[in-house]
Structure formats: C-alpha cells, structure tokens
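Quick review question:
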C-alpha cells in the first residue's frame, strides 16, 4: 500500500483573467519559471482569454495523462510489445442544476503494437488502465473511451 502523498501547486494572479501556475516540487534544479504554466479563464466565459491553458483544459489533460501513465505501467508489467501511444481527449462542460460542471471526458487512445496477436491484450490493458486511473477514480465526470489499436506497418 502506497503511503499518502501531497502535490503542491502555487497560483499567482498577474492581470485580467490570467495568472501563473507553478509547483515547488518541479522547480528543483530548474530556473523557477521553467515548469510554470500560464492559466486563464477560457474565452467562452466573460473576459476569458484565448490560447492559454484553462482549468477546463487542465482537468481534461489530467484524465488523459493519467490514462497514459497508467497504461505505460500496466503495459510494462504485462510485457506488452508496443511502439506507440497517443490519446486525443475532449472534456465536456455543461450547466447542471444551475452550476457548471465537467460532465464527461472522452478519451481516444491509440496504441501501436508490433504484432496482430497482441491486439486483444492491448485493448484489455487499455480498459484496465482506464479503470485503474487514479484521476478517473477521483472525479464525478463520466469517462468514456474509444480505443484504436494499430499494427505497425
């Protein structure tokens, strides 16, 4: 059983509807701002700003990146031979009972395998990865997955 961990994120407002997000853990050995991300209200909201990471993008990214890191661990433990992993993802924001909520995250992972015989196993490992993903298990949003497994040409 893994012990309890904390992950620290510091946000500082700069101007308008944007600020800078950094993590003290990620700054060690780097120039402090090297691992910072500019964040803002998305353009769909009043005074929102385009072309900057938003909480909605980061929420979607956390689900997607968790799928990838969980897949990498399970695939390695299962000795799955694969040569590629990518994942398109879409987070859906809706108004529910008068409040905004991220109601669904749609994941479209693509795994490239070396041999057709591993197709079913790759699909199984992806399904297992989604159900084991700690971020998916921590949120109320529905998480759906449309899997593609390709064989290396």
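Suggested answer, residue by residue:
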């Amino acid at each position: 059983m893994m012990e309890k961990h904390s992950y620290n994120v510091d946000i500082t407002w700069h101007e308008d509807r944007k600020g800078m997000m950094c993590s003290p853990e990620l700054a060690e050995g780097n120039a402090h701002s090297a691992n910072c991300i500019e964040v803002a209200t998305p353009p769909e909201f009043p005074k929102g700003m385009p072309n900057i990471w938003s909480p909605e993008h980061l929420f979607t990214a956390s689900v997607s990146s968790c799928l990838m890191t969980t897949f990498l661990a399970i695939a390695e433990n299962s000795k799955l031979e694969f040569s590629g992993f990518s994942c398109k993802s879409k987070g859906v924001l809706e108004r529910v009972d008068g409040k905004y909520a991220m109601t669904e995250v749609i994941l479209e992972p693509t795994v490239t395998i070396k041999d057709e015989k591993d197709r079913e196993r790759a699909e199984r490992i992806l399904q297992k990865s989604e159900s084991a993903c700690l971020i998916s298990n921590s949120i109320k949003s529905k998480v759906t997955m449309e899997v593609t497994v390709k064989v290396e040409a």
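Why it works: Residues 18 and 40 are 4 Å apart (CA to CA). The helical segments are 24-27, 55-77, 119-132.
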